[in-house]
Amino acid sequence: MLFAEQLNQLASNHLAWDIGVTLAHDLVQMRLPFVHTNMLSAPYRDDNRYLWDFDEVSDFAQVAPWQEKQVRKHVSLMEFANEVEVENAGDDAQEIWVLSSELFPYEDLGKSYNELEGKEPPPQPYHYAEWDYQMQLERPDWCTVLEKRPIPGEVEVIDDIVVKYKSIIGRLKYLIEAMQPQGVQRLRKQEDGDEIDLNAAVRAMIEMRMGEQPDPRVMMRNVRKVRDLSVLLLIDLSESTNDLVLGSNNTVLQLAREATVLLANALDKIGDPFAIHGFDSNGRHDVE
User: Fold this and answer.
1) Would you say residue 252 has pLDDT above 50?
2) Do 275 and 171 sit in the same domain of this protein?
3) pLDDT tens string 140-155
4) pLDDT at 218
5) H-type alpha helices, the chain
6) Using one digit for the tens of pLDDT, what is the confidence trace for 228-243?
7) Which of 161, 171, 219, 287 could form a disulfide with 193 if both were Cys (CB 3.0 to 4.6 A apart)?
8) d(Cα 219, Cα 197) in Å, to the nearest integer?
């Protein structure tokens, strides 16, 4: 009834407040007993999941169906060189041609066209879901990640770190190499394998004689354990990492760089594959 009486005020942001005050006043006048120990559970509770329900066809596509999605076409070097480029086309062009490798000029300058022009090709955005631990909901396509190549730095800084912590690098190399499993391991209770496990086969025959369901895993397999290790190191490159560490003259970023050099040098000596990535963000729509 209260909402029906205020049909002409549905657009007002004070409507819910006025109705709530009216209901609170009526409840006080009714003098209903209140027992704070009672715990009543609602038979139905709306958790607002529909707010994060993305349809296959977005509202933007329905409003603006004439806007086509940008196409990135991977072409060969000959196709890239023979095609006439549209000079006034920007990063929002309908079609962008991409080479799998960078294009270098005929002169052996050691620098690609991208480095000479000083402009990196626009990165392909990737959308990732995020789990909201407070609402216990997964938000689809919540973060946008733009992958970019790092700018080359000074090699002398890395060399100084290697010389300074040479003994620690050797110790790390020894610890990582100790993780290498060796020898042949025998796996029992396998449905398919190299040979029959006699103990398991005897138990299965006993179970069959007793009228029970036998365990079909009567085979065993010999597996040779080899080293299989790869490392991906993700470094936080946010602005806050430029703060000084308490009681030290080094910043958080400097310590992270030194630790990265130590680990990378030890892995390189062993021969294990590794990669170093960094990230910073300017909101959830711009994570680089």
Assistant:
1) yes
2) yes
3) 888 888 888 787 778 8
4) 86
5) 2-5, 15-30, 59-63, 77-82, 113-117, 155-164, 166-177, 198-209, 252-270
6) 778 899 998 888 888 8
7) 219
8) 5
Picking from 172, 220, 178, the residue whose alpha carbon sits closest to that of residue 199 is 220
In a domain, 24, yes or no: yes
In a domain, 194, yes or no: yes
Which amino acid, one-letter code, is at 236? Answer: D
Q: What length does the chain have? A: 288
Domain span holding position 211: 184-224
Pair 29, 77 in one domain: no
Instruction: Give the residue among 255, 253, 259 at the shortest CA–CA distance from 279.
Output: 253
- Residues 105, 129 within the same domain: yes
Residue pair 113/103 in contact by the 8 Å Cβ criterion: yes
Question: Residue 79 has which token pair?
Answer: 């196709």
Q: Around 110, how many Cα atoms within 13 Å sit in the side-chain half-sphere?
A: 0
User: Do 79 and 138 lie in a common domain?
Assistant: yes
DSSP 33-60: ---TT--PPPS-----GGGG---SS-HH
**Cβ density class 95-131: b for 16+ within 10 Å, e for less:** eeeebeeeeeeeeeeeeeeeeeeeeeebeeeeeeeee
Report the C-alpha gap between 119 and 283 in whole angstroms.
Answer: 23
Contact 3, 12 (CB under 8 A): no
**Residue 207: which residues within 8 A CB-CB, separation 6 or more?**
213, 214, 215
